Amino acid sequence: MAEKKLTIAIMDAPYEKASTITAMRIVSAALTKGIDVNVFAYEGAVNLAMKEQAPHANPVKGTTVEQEEHPTTKEFVRSLLELGKSNPQLTWVNCGLCVDERGAVNVVDGVKRGSPADFLKMANESTNTLVIPTK
Amino acid sequence: MSNYVFIESRDPFDSPDCSFLADTAAALKNRGNTVTVFLVQNAVLGARKQAHKSVLPQLLESGVTILADDFSLRERGIQSDECQSAIKTASIDQLVDLIVQENTKAVWH
């Protein structure tokens, strides 16, 4: 296995746990080093890339949408896919059954639909695999 | 022998099973493996010298390398000199380097 490749499985839904952001930091750092990355999004993690997510104002602080700069996970996914669009490459696969259960069909461009069989293939082709489970 | 990288994300004062990870890491080290524990998120709370009930000092004595994520420390306002001196501050880049080594098992907790 000449080229290094990392596979990461994530399961947490957006806006719940810091683990999601840590996973994205690992993906970003690996891509920046020129390492190809596979992400297999399972269960609630398929919602991370949902296109309809919108930033919001903060009525408590009285800030506007623009002032708040509220980050959405779909923007994180989109920017990671931009970073890994060719070489190095990021392959992001959402579990199809999890997508159907949650109606999470409309996702940012570049996110693929797959199954746990794809995760097995990714893991077999990778230097290492990191599974980040729900607690 | 193998390399083991344990990524500890949990607050040791909230999750008693953190001691199970420490026991496993020490046992693997005692069997001759290279073992690193990378503290991230609330797990860095246990790296402070003032965290008197932390299991990390015993883990250091067993020869396990312990690294603490610089971003997680900054988020929580923890300075590196507040941490156990043998616990080194590390970046997420260093974690990536560790887990893409050959013959390495990466375990998230």
The fold-level CATH name of chain A is Hypothetical Protein Ychn, Chain: A
Structural class of chain B: alpha/beta
Written as H for each helix and E for each strand, in order along the chain, the element string of chain A is EHEHHEHEHE
Protein chain pair with the most extensive contact, residues per chain: A-B, 20 and 21 residues
Q: Reading side by side through the largest sheet of chain B, how are the strands ordered?
A: 4-3-2-1-5
User: CATH superfamily membership of chain A, which one?
Assistant: DsrEFH-like
Count of helical stretches of chain B: 4
Poorly predicted residue ranges of chain B: none
Q: Output the strand order for the largest sheet of chain A.
A: 4-3-2-1-5
CATH level-3 fold name of chain B: Hypothetical Protein Ychn, Chain: A
Give the N-terminus to C-terminus distance of chain B in angstroms: 22 Å
The percent of residues in helical segments of chain A reads 25-40%
**CATH-level-2 architecture of chain B:** 3-Layer(aba) Sandwich
Q: Could you spell the SSE succession of chain B in H and E letters? A: EHEHEHEHE
**Strand element count of chain B:** 5
Largest sheet of chain A: 5 strands, parallel
- Architecture per CATH nomenclature, i.e. the level-2 architecture of chain A: 3-Layer(aba) Sandwich
What does this entry look like structurally?
The complex is a heterodimer of chains A (135) and B (109). Chain A is an alpha/beta fold and 135 residues long. Chain A has a single domain, classed as DsrEFH-like (Hypothetical Protein Ychn, Chain: A, 3-Layer(aba) Sandwich). Chain A contains five helices and five strands, in the order βαβααβαβαβ. Chain A has helices at residues 18-32, 65-68, 73-83, 96-102, 116-124, and strands at residues 5-10, 36-41, 90-95, 111-114, 128-132. Chain A has a five-stranded parallel beta sheet, with helices on both faces. In chain A, strand 1 (5-10), helix 1 (18-32) and strand 2 form a beta-alpha-beta unit. Chain A is globular and about 50 Å long. By secondary structure, chain B is α/β, with parallel strands linked by helices. Chain B has one domain (3-108): DsrEFH-like (Hypothetical Protein Ychn, Chain: A). Chain B is built from four helices and five strands. Chain B has a five-stranded parallel beta sheet. In chain B, strand 2, helix 2 (56-61) and strand 3 form a beta-alpha-beta unit. The mean pLDDT of chain B is 96. The interface between A and B is medium-sized, with 20 and 21 residues.
